[in-house]
Amino acid sequence: MLLEDRNAIIYGGGGQIGGAIARAFAREGARVHLTGRTRTTLEKVADDIRAQGGRAETAEVDALDEAAVDAHADAVARDAGGIDISLSVIADGDVQGTPVAGMSLDDYLRPVTTAVTSKFLTARAAARHMIPRRSGVIMMFGGTGNLSAIRDYHVGGFLTALDAAESLRRQLAVELGRYGIRVVTLRTSGVPETLGADFLEREAIERLIVDPTLLGRAATLEDVGNVAVFAASDWARTLTGTAINMTCGADLD
């Protein structure tokens, strides 16, 4: 197993992407610690993992609450013996569909503030425990993708929030590399499965995601889980300070 006996904290572990990654991590032997603000969604993912023979713990943690993030990371490190992987997939609360020229300042800044705060706090909490062990992987979602593909759709501060995550990834990688800690972001052009059947603009958004790709398809939740396992494993031991591109060719490096 690629992640046997690794301890992984997943912030936003009750969501579709966080849940998919948690299931993939557990399948590969990791003990996953699922955090979020809604106990019922966390327990659903944890129950799925346990039913397959995996190990999962849950905790209600608001990733914007500095004291709560630090206390939970401290408890995991103490009780489980350390933190090997920290992954943030916290939703940024962005407002989409309104042109920038018509947006309020609060609506534009909300996803930026949320992304920077949650990713900084969770990464810092993990790094403090990884540094003495001189190992660990910090992961987050980021990357702006193909801007021309969304010229007719208004995403507000969402792209700025993603760029902020990439900037944080670079800074962390530079500072933490000397301690053997890797930092990567996972980049998709969107995962259509997460839109939901009742999403008002599902078909239009799916076309925005799929049409710019070179492969004629987008990443699935299963793809995201599998790539996240690779990124967190020793098979990716040479990768840090970089984004892992899962855009099916929509974004060319």
Describe this structure in words.
The chain is of the alpha/beta class and 253 residues long. It has one domain (7-245): NAD(P)-binding Rossmann-like Domain (Rossmann fold, 3-Layer(aba) Sandwich), CATH 3.40.50.720. 43% of the residues lie in helices and 15% in strands. The protein has 7 helices and 7 strands. The chain has helices at residues 16-27, 39-51, 66-80, 105-133, 158-176, 202-210, 221-232, and strands at residues 7-11, 31-36, 55-60, 85-88, 136-141, 181-187, 242-245. The chain is globular. It starts with 6 loop residues before the first strand and ends in an 8-residue tail after the last strand. This is SDR family oxidoreductase.
Question: How would the blueprint of this fold be written?
Answer:
Layout: E1 7-11, H1 16-27, E2 31-36, H2 39-51, E3 55-60, H3 66-80, E4 85-88, H4 105-133, E5 136-141, H5 158-176, E6 181-187, H6 202-210, H7 221-232, E7 242-245
Parallel strand pairs: 1-2, 1-4, 2-3, 4-5, 5-6, 6-7
